Amino acid sequence: MGKIKTHKASAKRFSVTGTGLVKMNHSHHRHKLGIKDQKRKRHLRTADYVQGKVASNIRALINK
After folding, report:
1. pTM summary value
2. Which of 5, 16, 21, 30 could crosslink 64 through cysteines, CB 3.0-4.6 Å?
3. What domains can be seen in the chain, in order of their start residue?
4. What does the pLDDT profile of the chain (64 residues) look like in tens digits?
């Protein structure tokens, strides 16, 4: 019986916390930052948690 491999692209973008929540970073914070206001950039810096069924799908991809 084969083993299930970790989906490496998902493992680089998501992590699972100690309580089982799936943690992610926001997108749109790489370039063209001069046209985005300070409040938007500040909120994009913070991490967020994936909600619902999507979180269980990602957890299965990264085998946690």
Report:
1. 0.82
2. 16
3. 8-61 (4.10.410)
4. 888 899 999 999 999 999 999 999 999 999 999 999 999 999 999 999 999 999 999 999 998 6
